[in-house]
UniProtKB/TrEMBL annotation:
Keywords: Cell outer membrane, Ion transport, Iron, Iron transport, Membrane, Receptor, Signal, TonB box, Transmembrane, Transmembrane beta strand, Transport. This is TonB-dependent receptor. Its main location: membrane. SUPFAM superfamilies: Porins. Residues 1-25 form the signal peptide. It is a multi-pass membrane protein. Belongs to the TonB-dependent receptor family. Pfam families: Plug (PF07715), TonB_dep_Rec_b-barrel (PF00593). Residues 57-150 form the TonB-dependent receptor plug domain.
Amino acid sequence: MRMTLGLLATAASLACAGARAQAPAAPPATSSDAPADAATSTIVVTAKALGKGEARANSVVSIETIQDQPAGLDPLKLVARVPGLQVGSSDSLTGSFSMRLSMRGLNKEQIGVSIDGIPNGSTLSNGGTMPNRLLDPSNLFWIEVSQTAGDIGTPSNQALGGFIEFKTRDPARQAGALAELSAGSYDYQRQFVRYDTGDIGFGTRAFFSASHNYVETWPGEHSGRSRRDHFDLKTLTEFAGGHKLRWTASYNNMADNDYDALALRAASTFKAVFEKNPNTDALTDAWTGNPAIDQNNRRTRGIASRELFTHLNASIKLGDTTRLELKPYLHRQEGEGNFYVPYKQLPVDGQLYSAVPPGGRPVATVQECYANQYARTASGALIPTSAVVFPAGVTAASLAAAGCPAAARFQMNPQASWGAREATARLGIYYTRRHGALGELQWRLGERHAMRAGGWVEKIERTKGRNWYLATDPKAGPDFEASALYSTTQDRQYASTTTMAYLQDKISLLDEAAELDLGLTAQRFSETYRSPVEFNGQRALAVSSGVLPKVAALYRFNDDLEVFASASKNFSALPDSVFEGTAAVGSKKGVEPETSVNVDAGLRWSRGPHGASFQVYSIDYRNRISIQNGNPDGDIFGRDATTSFLNQGGIRSKGFEVTGRTQWGPWTLYANYAFNDAYYVEDTAFEGIRKGDPVLGAARHNAFVELALKPSDATRVTLNAKHVGKAAGTYHEYSSGGVTYAREYLPAYTLVGLSAKWKLPRAWSGPLKQAELSFNVDNLTDKRYLGGVGMELTTSNPLTSGRYFLGGPRTFFVTLRAEI
């Protein structure tokens, strides 16, 4: 393990020093609204961590907690301490492809995410956007997690089982510059700087921040790289009369060599097996020049993305009890997913781009491992044969060893005339343009009714392509030239529109001891899809949610004790998969959008810095869209596989969560436990699911405990542990190679973390002000474990052969934060 130590200076100014907690009744609006008194801060943090004052399951991760974590940590990993959430990836900081998130049994594609109230969009790693690309963790002010379906009006096309809102800080009222400098294991490096202008006139203040992150992958020789450059600009103008205008712009440029999946059981013949070697995913580090081996080189796997995200928030006061909020936004992303294969994927017509004519079929493709391997016509087309003909001395086994088993389908030229070995850089091309607006009117009716009415509209244009480039010299490396493009096998073009409207009446009853929330939401989603090289024409669909009721109630017995209950119906737009595939032309017919009914109830108690909560829940996820594959072994590029989609059953999830927080003297203890029973409610024979099978990757038992010691204002030491129980990795027993295996379970694991913070004496820090040195160790005991299920990587028939991602090893971080 390599470890580099460095310095860091965090731009934490007023927002970081004075924003240690949130207002008791609601999350804070600005970074200067929070109380500075330590005792008051502790009380408020306790109340919000338990969700006090909310009529539904809710938790807040405070700025104090955020700043205790390693600098640059992926924002999604910050919510691992929230009851009901399960987070994992293959390293301690990030992991776009390997990132797994589960909330009460539902995954990250079924959980809504927003940044400052603006929808994040899809959280797919390839073609979607993870939240860490739209914000810098050092500018986070708080994170609000609703383990149910979120507040009324939360903008999302996928929030079936919860909602996560990331709130960034406002510019500070006083001018100042801050910085962070971090270093750690696997050559981790991070530099961050932020400058606050203070008041520059006309009620306006602003900040600008920039950061650079770099870390290497941990297995083998650390040949993979993850790099991220991020820039944020935010302005706030406060007008006379109570009006406010915020403008935010972010730019992110990242490139990432991620981790590959592996199997669990020692009997597996997959390239990497956890029980055989839990220290590797079997990707290679050294370049051999043999494409059959180098297709597993870590340098050939990864994604890159450039994103611009900008939005306005205009808050207009229309009277003493009326306010209008408008939030237009724009998000643009372009990126690539990299892959390397030991063959040339040739269209049989010899054309680079072959659009399907009306009434026609897509052009088939074949694989060529060596130059001049196949017989060709005078026009250059390849000729497949009905029987396999081998040259002398060549066997099917030798072809498989060469990394090109499909070559056995076609007649070969004599072996003596074979040319040089060929390889291809395959790029997935992604482009997204999202733009939309949210609007909300808030007003009061009399003394009891707080009303909200609003809407959301969003338009998205997206492209997903697949381009094939011949490697320049497979013996030397995976490099290619843009001029080496020889085939495009996907050119998928989407255009979608989402509209939503909602109305809420929050009613105060019994002299404000009780609160009743009544809300209605309606949503409509429409999309068109074109893919000229896969089919001719255009496909289209439109689905509506109907009226979705949301009801919540809160009753306060006194200042210390309250009970709540909520119920909501939720809606998810149809995924892209119903458009795609080789037989998806009619698959959308009869497919209904997925929905869920979420119910929870709970009890909260807090007095001063002490508090506890208990909540129970039930999720009924309906109309689950399942894939039906008619020929799972077919060549998708040759168009001899067929897929269709059906609504088959769903998922039921029920359980309870217990949370407690207390402080005595310099000690603070926070702990929670979550029990989650999530299972499939219907047999789906093709996928191999049986009624009652546990949901993949969703552990029944999760617990978190953290003990902090603060012997003085200058020092804080924290020890925590996160336990994740065993979770199903396959649906049920399955057979492979004549052997029948029992259902696989990801083993339970417990991770221990240690952190310490120390404010440097002024005599030591020189020109630095409020200098603070922090030290973190993630996975202190260096536990080897599986961080999650790669469900999208399982075999298609049946979907029972589990693929998993390694969890991150022991990792050290050191950070210096200071005003400069």
